[in-house]
Amino acid sequence: PPERKRFYQNVSISQGEGGFEINLDHRKLKTPQAKLFTVPSEALAIAVATEWDSQKDTIKFYTMHLTTLCNTALDNPTQRNKTQLIRAAVKFLETDTVCYRVEEPPALAELQKNEWDPVVAWAEKRYNVAIGSSTSILGPNIPASTKETFVSHLASYNMWALQGIEYVITQLKSLILSMGLIDRHITVEKAVLLSRLEEEYQIQRWGSVEWAHDYDLCELRARAAAGTLFVHLCSESSAVKHKLLQD
């Protein structure tokens, strides 16, 4: 939506019957489908409230990634159930960024091997699966058992967290990088760099359009970070929430 003038002075949170609510002055925040904006954890409510409180003279909705994710979880505009969300996430394995390799130029092929192989090896060990990589345009042949393992793992997350996981995967174009990020094996900066490896290689060779590259990079980091935070704040473990608030 377009920017609109900030119409409130104070932002607060309160606990209602369905969870935690966001108050803009004395108005309760609603979703695009006019549902009461209610989130499952106090930590997430604080994070969303901070987004609203950070807006200046105008409300820039495109900067409010956590609010957007909450709206998606509440309204579920695509009307998908948990099984459909999980299957959509696992389907990314078939086109996972880190599994597609080049043979030419040799320098890029070497860079992909050095940077992507370790994270693929981590995922194979972490989840006890076979993933591999391929230079074929068809991509690697991912075993059915690997897909089912990821289906089982993702099933341990609730619907809210799954919305966040799919959001991160969509940003990074990689299930493997996304799980590495959510499992805290790699940082946001590292995950984004690995997802843009070929682009960064080309920029180092030919240069970049002034400001445009930096803007895209910062935007992708912001979205990946917001999605990852959303997953953790929607997780069932109160210990995880407490630690994140301390961090």
TrEMBL record:
Keywords annotated in UniProt: Chaperone, Membrane, Mitochondrion, Mitochondrion inner membrane, Transit peptide
Compartments reported by the entry: Mitochondrion inner membrane
Main location: mitochondrion
GO biological process: mitochondrial proton-transporting ATP synthase complex assembly
Domain of life (superkingdom): Eukaryota
InterPro entries attached to this UniProt entry: ATP12_ATP_synth-F1-assembly (IPR011419), ATP12_ATP_synth-F1-assembly_N (IPR042272), ATP12_ortho_dom_sf (IPR023335)
Pfam families tied to this protein: ATP12
SUPFAM superfamilies: ATP12-like (SSF160909)
Membrane topology per record: Peripheral membrane protein
An annotated GO cellular component: mitochondrial inner membrane
Assembly, per entry: Interacts with ATP5F1B; involved in the assembly of the F1 component of the mitochondrial ATP synthase (ATPase). Interacts with FMC1.
Protein family per UniProt: Belongs to the ATP12 family.
UniProt function note: Plays a role in the assembly of the F1 component of the mitochondrial ATP synthase (ATPase).
Protein known as: ATP synthase mitochondrial F1 complex assembly factor 2
UniProt gene name: Atpaf2
